[in-house]
Each structure stands twice: as structure tokens, then as C-alpha cells.
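Hmm, what's this shape?
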Amino acid sequence: MSHQHSTTTPTATPAEAQRSDWWRDAVIYQVYPRSFADSDGDGMGDLEGVRARLPYLRDLGIDAVWLSPFYASPQADAGYDVADYRAVDPMFGSLLDADALIRDAHDLGLRIIVDLVPNHSSDQHEWFRRAVAEGPGSPLRDRYHFRPGKGAHGELPPNDWESIFGGPAWTRVTEPDGTPGDWYLHLFAPEQPDFNWDHPAVGDEFRSILRFWLDMGVDGFRIDVAHGLVKAAGLPDLGAHDQLKLLGNDVMPFFDQDGVHAIYREWRLVLDEYAGERIFVAEAWTPTVERTANYVRPDELHQAFNFQYLSTSWDAAELRTVIDRTLDAMRPVNAPATWVLSNHDVTRHATRFANAPGLGTQIRLAGDRELGLRRARAASLLMLALPGSAYVYQGEELGLPDVVDLPDEVRQDPAYFRGAGQDGFRDGCRVPIPWTRTGSSYGFGAGGSWLPQPADWADLSVESQTGVADSTLELYRTALSVRREQPGLGAGDAVEWLKAPAGVLAFRRGDFVCAANTTSQSATIPAYGRVLLASGEVTVAEDEAKLPGDTTVWWTTG
């Protein structure tokens, strides 16, 4: 007999949202505001658009919404260049819109996590503008990393660090009298000068910013570049060419310095002043998952993104290794593991898995779309079955692929225009998502969309998939409903691996069993009990089950 999943719709009540340690097994949905929903028809998503779609997110069955930056910003890096941390950029709305969004989310039993960008500001931030305008000796320059250049006339950068976006990590300012002056450090775009966290005013300011948004009612913060705040004393030369290839493989003088942990211990004291179990989530790119665990010690942050898992191929052996290492690393610090497959900086996993392994996390090839979707669905069920917290990037519940054929003239990723560093193809995962079969921008908004959507996205829209039993949207809805209902799912720190054919992962958690076939061939496995859900069609005969290639199945033995 064959088993298909049902289409039950979960709901979250405010009482459920207040349960203890909610974050240990939370499913957190990332909203990229400019690409989620547009309320005013200007082609750009906004907070009021997000607010109007909150019932959709409640019905999907998630626990919290993480909003990418919506602060006042010149948008040199899609809002990660913040000019005012206490203001909403007019393109997204106002502080009143943010307040209404937070209140409505809470009424629906959803929590709101906002992005915080403490490594750098915009070059239009008041501090930086004054630092440049006041010239050499301005005390505000001490709040950033201003240094004289090397060479006979200071014409060379202070050290050999490279920007993540390509080119030197230093830019020279023109002083008020018109002469070339000091250089300032920016690990990302020149419009994003790095703060000097050795200066007490920087720490004071960010503790104040935390309180501002906590007083507004937010439930937590996702910390951008959490590993980058502290730089090695003296800003020493790195001495290595092609520094970008070293990222994630070694502790760099500008990343993952031990000094960051004192900052987060101070922040935790602020957070713990507030009721309601507010949380911190670290975006910390570290050489190993063991070093990631340092960020989630009991007196620091609550969660850290698991980039090692995100970058793992669809391969049973590789996945098992990363799962074991993650759980082993988090257990000693009593922090939940996190699992993520896509975000706003990497190619969507439906496209990554459509291509051969080893191409990295930014891929410009469409690959085999059907294969990619099949693997993406299977990978999603595997991820949601693991102990800990899971992150879902907007549109992955629709099975959206990356848009790999955007014309050059519409691209807006700043890294694309720098000609070096990151590939600059992040626009492909940022194309606004489709809500309806027809209409302007498939229901995203009345005035088109800031990035063009593919012509075949009508069939991937929320409208097209709602109520369709085998759709990816209903697969996610049912998976999140089952996850809430099954005591063996969610929080925890271990899995019991079961014997399985080569290329198949099988594990038990209480009365729950998950089996994922990462090969292209069908595999015969035991029938562990009653099928709860499967990403494809699973055939059960007596005590055996036929698990198709690139398919995951959930069982209950209870």
C-alpha cells in the first residue's frame, strides 16, 4: 500500500507560545522583508506586507519569525549597512508599523526576532559622518578603526586584510581640507565601516539599542557577523594570499577572536532583565562546530547557526558525521543544535541539490529541477526530524529554486559589482516569493517586484499549492503539525542510529523513526510502524518498506 501525507493545518495559541524553553525546539521562519510581501505597490516588500501575511505563517505552523534588517539604511548592502538602529527605513514603513507587526504576531502566538548588525554601521551613521567631517583627532574616529597608511605618503593600506566582498579591507578618506588622510577598516563593503569594540561607547550604545527593541516587545535578536566584533590586538598582517579561501578553515585575526565572548556575556545580562524568554541567535562562521559551541555557553547566546550542516552535501555519510559532531559539540554547553538548509546569502537548497556536490553554496546552474525538488523535500523532513531548532527561509516551503538567469542589468547584490570576493549572485535567492497564480508579481504587490520573477512561478505559488495533497507547501504544513504532536520530535540532544542500507540514514527518537534515502535507487528497509509522513511515495508490504531514492519517511512505533 502507498502512503500520502494528510493536509491538517496547525495553529499556535498565545499560551503555547509562552511555554518554557520554547527556543530549544523552535521552528523559526526567516522573512527577507523586501521580498516577502509589498503592501503599497512600490515593488518593494515592507513591514505592513509582512503583517498582513502573519496568518499564513501561523497556519504554516512555525514558532517565530526572524526579520532581516529593516532599519534606516542607504541600502548599500540590502540593509546590513545601518544608519540608525532605532528607526525603520521609510521603504519598509515606520516604527508604528513595527509596533503593529510585533503586537499582531503575539496575538497569533508568534514571536518576532529582529536582526542586529553590531560589527559595522553604515558610512552614513551619524558617528562615522562626524568622524570624517571633524578630521584627524576627532574622538569619534576612535569608535571605528581609523589608521594612518603605510608608505612614504601613507598611500598604502595599514595592513593586508581583504574585504569579504573583495579588494582591500581599507578605504582612505579625504580630509576636510581636501588632502588624502587616514584609512578606515571595513571587512565588508566600503560603505560598512567596522566598529571598534575596544571603545566603551560602542558597547554602551548597543546595550541601549538592545533595550530599545526589547521595550518594543521583540522576542530576540539574530546577531549578524557575531564572530567579527573583536579584532586581534595591533591588527596584524595575515600574510596569506587568497584570504577568502581561508575563511571558515582557521581562526582569523578579524574573526572568531575570543574577546567577543565578554561582549555577549554583557548582552545576556541585559536580555535576562526582561521576562518572556527572549533569545539571541548567533550568525557565527567558525572553523569548527566545536568553536561555534563557545557562543552558546550558558551565560552567552542561546543558539548559533549551523553553517557546517548547511554546506553539507546530500550524502548519508557526510550528513551523519555533521549531525554527530553538532550534537556532540552542543551537549557539553547544554545548548540546542540548530539546523538550516537555506538563507538570504546562499543558493536555495532546491537548486544546490539539483547540481553535483562540491560546487559550494553559491551556484549559478539550474541543474536538474525535478531532482533538486525531490531532494529538497527529503532534506527538509530530515532536518525537521533532528533534535533542536530548525530554520526555514521564506519560500523554501514552496520548493522555490534559485533564479539563476537574472539579467546582469537587474542585479543588486553589492558583491556582484565589486568583481572579486563573493560571487555576488545572492539575488537569485532573494527574488520575491509568489502568492497567487496570476496578477502583478504573483500577488507579491500591485506594482511589480524589485527583482523579476520567473514565468513558471505561478504553479509554485501559495495559491496553487494550498490544499494540494502532494504539494511542497502541504508537506511543510503537515510536517510542522506532526512535529508539534510527536513527543519524540523537537527538543533533545541525541539520536539513536539504526542499521540501514548504504546511503540511507535511519534513526530513532523515542517512538519516532526517521529514514532518509540519499541515493538515487530504491532501498528496502524495515517497516518501523505506522507511516506519519513521507516526502515521496513509500510502499509497505508486511514488515518491509520500499523507500524510493531521494526520499525521507517518518514513522511512529507507538
User: Anything to note?
Assistant: The first strand starts at residue 2 and ends at 3. The radius of gyration is 24 Å. Confidence is low (pLDDT under 50) at residues 1-18. Residues 126-185 form a domain with the Oligo-1,6-glucosidase; domain 2 fold (CATH 3.90.400.10).
